[in-house]
Write a structure and sequence with these properties.
Radius of gyration: 17 Å
Strand order of the largest sheet: 3-2-4-1-5-6
Shape: globular
Protein name: phosphoglycerate mutase (2,3-diphosphoglycerate-dependent)
Structural class: alpha/beta
Pfam family, one: His_Phos_1
Distance between the termini: 28 Å
Keywords: Gluconeogenesis, Glycolysis, Isomerase
CATH topology: Rossmann fold
Helix content: 25-40%
Organism: Alcanivorax sediminis
Number of domains: 1
Family: Belongs to the phosphoglycerate mutase family. BPG-dependent PGAM subfamily.
Length: 198
Amino acid sequence: MTTTFFDLIRHGEPAGGHKYRGHRDDPLSEQGWQQMRSAISKGEQWDHILTSPLLRCREFAHELAEQMNLPVTIAEGFKEICFGDWEGKTREQVEQEYGDHQANFWRDAENFPPPNAETVQAFHQRIGDAWLHWSKQMAGKKVLLVCHGGVIRMVLGHVLGLTPSNAMAGFQIPFACRSQVRLDQTEFGTLSCLVKHG
């Protein structure tokens, strides 16, 4: 049996504070850097670091990889969902401009996508493909994945067998939040287990 561990960590607070970012490439704020550094304990060990290509993940991943003398790989597939016309806006601004649409999105993302956004179904598929690929590539290793709230939701959705909408609505993932997933490759196939969240 081959056992693989993935530690998932969401990026810290980006410059500009809380807003829909999606594919917008803002770096971490000073507080965001502190949140990320505080979330990693002394003595933790990984074999490899994977990161979203976006600055708010990538810069910290490279810093940590250098400190720990670890290989780091940019995994394009783990980029955040694109929020379309909502990108760059705060929740308050979206509520003012789009009324109930935002509440409906968080309640049922599959039927109420933001205008011009990546659908949650397409996002779920993209993350599923990336998860399958990297699970195979990293089999038997302990991996840190530095990514986004939406990405973690979809990974946990795949692990727990949730619909895209349920995965999007089903987890609270604050800045620098950590989760751990265990994958056991057995004669019966891959067994996925959420070890801890938050």
